[in-house]
Structure formats: structure tokens, C-alpha cells
Amino acid sequence: INKVASKTDKPIPAEKATMVVPAEVFDQYVGEYQLAPGFIITVRREDAKFIAQATGQPPFEIFAENETTFFLKVVQAKMEFKKNAEGKTESLTLFQNGQAIPGKKIK
Q1: What is the pLDDT of residue 29?
Q2: Three-state secondary structure call for residue 52
């Protein structure tokens, strides 16, 4: 089926398992993260969905791998949120194309 549908012999990637993260946990990550000058990822919650949007790009839903790591389904990438010693979210790291790009929380 995959060979006919997508014209490739490569196997269809398995659906990645997600976990439910309470809204109050995710809400700690809501904000803006600057990964480079002029490139910001905005993270927000829309009802039960977790949304991220990069500068100049459409918004996309992100899915919990665990309480601090979220992955995208639109591209192969994931984001890991980091907290300081006081438990306040201070940054995220975007993992994409073999790179780890840190971003400081600015709002």
C-alpha cells in the first residue's frame, strides 16, 4: 500500500505515542522564545490543544512526548522546555535536522 500511495518502498513511520499533559503544566511554557534575532517561537494553548508558531510561519499543534518535551507532526522536530532552579520556565531547545537550537524565554 505504501509503495502505491506514496511511490516509495520506505516504511510508513509509526505513529508516535503521546501523553496527556495537564493544562496547568503546559501553561507554564506559554510565552515567546527567541531562537535567533528576528526568529521567535510563540507557544500558546487553545482549549485542549497546544500550539506553537514560529516567525513567518503558520501555527501548528504540538504533542507531548513527556511533561517537558513536545513533538511536531508537520515536520520531524521536537521542543524541550527547561526550567530554572526555582521551577520557572526559562528556555526551550528546538531539535530539528540534527541541530539543537536553544531559545530564551523573552515573554
Answers
A1: 96
A2: strand
Tens digits of per-residue pLDDT, 53-101? 999 999 999 999 999 999 999 889 999 999 999 999 999 999 999 999 9
Report the pLDDT value the prediction gives residue 56, as an integer from 0 to 100.
95
Catalogue the long-range contacts made by 38-41 (C-beta closer than 8 Å, 24 or more residues apart). Answer: 40/103, 40/106, 41/79, 41/92, 41/94, 41/103
CB 67 within 8 A of CB 48: no
Q: What is the C-alpha separation between 4 and 30, in angstroms, rounded?
A: 42
Query: What is the DSSP secondary-structure string of 30-45?
Result: -EEEEEETTEEEEEEE
Q: What is the pTM of this model?
A: 0.81
Cell 523573552 -> residue:
106
The DSSP secondary-structure symbol of 28 reads: G
The ranges assigned to domains in the chain are 16-97
Handedness of CA 16, 17, 22, 28 (dihedral sign): negative
Is 106 within 8 Å of 91 (Cβ atoms)? no
